[in-house]
Amino acid sequence: MDERGAGQIFQLYLDGAEIITGALAEPAVGEAWHRPSVLEDQLVGGLAGHLARGGVWVVEDYLRTTDAAGPIDFESAAQYFATLMSAVTADDHQAIRDRGAALAALGQRELVEMLVGRLAAVRTTLGAVAPDHRISVSGGNGMRLGDYLVTRVVEQVVHMDDLARSIGGEPWPMPEEAVRLAIRVGAEIGALRHGAAPMVRALYRRGFADGPLPVL
């Protein structure tokens, strides 16, 4: 990712983080805090905790704890997701749910206050690093910051839709470029995990996927 592209993804990520902060503070989210979400074995509060951590401040955690030296293991957001999803276990999924539930236990108000503070720190930290700065992400794998932020934008877009569906509300308007990016990365993940030919068929021919596919 070049410097211009990295700058754009920085802003997309920060714009999404602001939308998340506002969404998690809404009364409708608080009213549904202890209700099941659309995600398996996860309450709305747990989903909110996952959004706050995984969609926003985990970036600063990685920046603060990473030695910038070392190899680049994931060259793109699609490679990151495809590799991790091929290796993820039931215990890994449970650990994600547990982290979200632990943050949900703080309550809506305290979680939002924490998110506001952590987002301010993220802004400061991002302002001091280069676009190609290396961080260690899940499993200690090396990744360029700009490429990792693409994964966070995907998380933001996907889980904000999960949150809207969980409370029975209209989707929050995410930046158009962020939504297009999430769709593009999703297609790349599918090609990496299942092969190019199956993805072409799923996208353009009937009988290989359901719902909005094929697109033509």
TrEMBL record:
Highest taxon in the source lineage: Bacteria
Q: Which GO terms describe its molecular function?
A: metal ion binding
What Gene3D superfamilies does the record tag this protein with? dinb family like domain (1.20.120.450)
Know the name of this protein? Mycothiol-dependent maleylpyruvate isomerase metal-binding domain-containing protein
Chain ranges of the Mycothiol-dependent maleylpyruvate isomerase metal-binding domain: 23-164
Q: Which InterPro entries match?
A: DinB/YfiT-like (IPR034660), MDMPI_metal-binding (IPR024344)
